[in-house]
Amino acid sequence: MKPATLRKWSVVHTWSSIACTLFMFILCATGLPLIFHDEIEALEGGHEVEKWDASTLVDYDTAVEAALAKHPGNVPLYLSFDVDRPVVNITSGPTADAAESQMAFNPIDLRDAKPASGGEEGGFMDLLLQIHTDLLLGDPGMYFLGFMGFLFALALVSGVVLYSPFAKKAGFAGVRKEKAARIRWLDWHNMIGGVTLAWALVVGLTGTINTLSEPITAWWRADALATLTKDGGETVAPYRTGMAGRAVANAMEAAPGMRPQFVAFPGAAFSSRDHYAVFLQGATPLTEKLLTPVMIDAQTGEVDGIGPMPWYMKGLLLAQPLHFGDYGGLIMKILWALLDIVTMVVLGSGLYLFSRRLAKPARTRAVTRLQSAGAA
Questions:
Q1: 347: Cα separation from own chain's centroid
Q2: Sign of the CA dihedral 34, 35, 39, 42?
Q3: Per-10-residue mean pLDDT, the chain, length 376
Q4: So where does this one cross the membrane (predicted)?
Q5: Looking at residue 272, what DSSP letter applies?
Q6: 49: helix, coil or strand?
């Protein structure tokens, strides 16, 4: 590669790295405990998976009515399911298109149709997740971090370009121990960066994809989801007792071997004006992240449309567990955590090298001034 081309890549690597380093430190630091969010929350909650007799549980519609009784005038928007206990979570609002700030979240125990404990938001892990997601700045912060993720990927690619000529001559992972400290640090920086390259690219790019979840989901709702229904109504179909349970049962019958993750009621963002949208998930750690929407007619309770999500939604849903490494068990989480720590070492060594690079011209100028003063 020509020297002029290498110099251009060096500029790209230096400034893309400097621009994103602080924010990547924040993301690595907040992401480390989030890798173990399930384990941490289990310790905080102090409960194990509960056992229950399914034949004694109340139906979903009874739970919906119990939640609505706490908020007279509200309509049901979403119904989701706890995995480790017989609890459904009912989200309601004053209207079907209510803003998130107007929504009420109610966990209902299916053993007695009474409010369940837990499920509240606002704990330490939720705060960490919000910082990791948007720096507590909402959508602007989320898109900004997405851009930082792009710069991080650019820094990794440019680093490979710069390291390749050296690796061809000295061999991969070569450390010139006889050289000055800055050169040794550079070799260690390059070696560790090369070892963690694939993981860092995966985490950086999946993090960037995750920041685009809202526009990607909006596109899917307006495009692929709309084709599953024959939504021609101008008003939102009102909730009728018995329809929630019927919608879930018919959806599961239409897609055997899957289980419900959540239900969107008519008029909610993930449904249509006259359909229940039942989102089913697979039964394995990886396929449970892939959802299949089943559209149920709000009047008849019959299946009106079913289909897998398009490739871009699958990419989004797979990016989320891949980013945190939470689909391969505890061993994979530990590996993700170790790589996260190593990445912080790479970021720190990069800052050290840049500071030494800035200090070198300053020392050169100081020596020049001293020599000039001595000559005078």
A1: 22
A2: positive
A3: 80 89 93 87 62 83 95 95 89 92 94 79 79 91 94 88 68 58 63 77 90 85 68 78 94 90 91 90 75 90 85 84 78 90 85 72 47 41
A4: 12-36, 142-167, 188-209, 334-355
A5: B
A6: coil
Q: Are 171 and 164 in contact (CB under 8 A)?
A: no
Q: What whole-number distance in Å separates Cα of residue 207 and Cα of residue 37?
A: 17
d(CA 335, CA 180): 33
95: left (phi over 0), alpha (psi -120 to 50) or beta: beta
**How far apart, in whole angstroms, are the C-alpha atoms of residue 18 and residue 32?**
22
Strand ranges of the sheet holding 104-109, from the earlier edge strand across to the other edge:
114-115, 104-109, 87-93, 75-81, 259-264, 275-281, 291-297, 303-306
Q: What is the 3-state secondary structure (H, E, C) of 279-343?
A: EEECCCCCHHHCEEEEEEECCCCCEEEECCCCHHHHHHHHHHHHHHCCCCHHHHHHHHHHHHHHH
Residues 6+ apart with CB under 8 A from 229: 272, 275, 295, 304, 305
Measured CA to CA, the distance from residue 297 to residue 305 in angstroms comes to 9
Look up tokens 């590669």; give the residue: 1
Alpha helices in 36-123 (DSSP H): 37-45, 60-69
Spatial distance between the Cα atoms of 226 and 243, rounded to a whole number of angstroms: 21
Handedness of CA 255, 259, 297, 274 (dihedral sign): negative
Distance between CA 153 and CA 173 in Å, rounded? Answer: 21
Contact 153, 208 (CB under 8 A): yes
Q: Which residues of 224-240 are buried (b: 16+ CB within 10 A; e: fewer)?
A: bbeebbebeeeebbebe
The model carries a pTM of 0.73
Give the angle subtended at the CA of 243 by the CAs of 239 and 244, to the nearest 5°. Answer: 90
Which residues, at least 6 apart from 104, have a Cβ–Cβ distance to it below 8 Å? 67, 70, 71, 74, 91, 92, 93
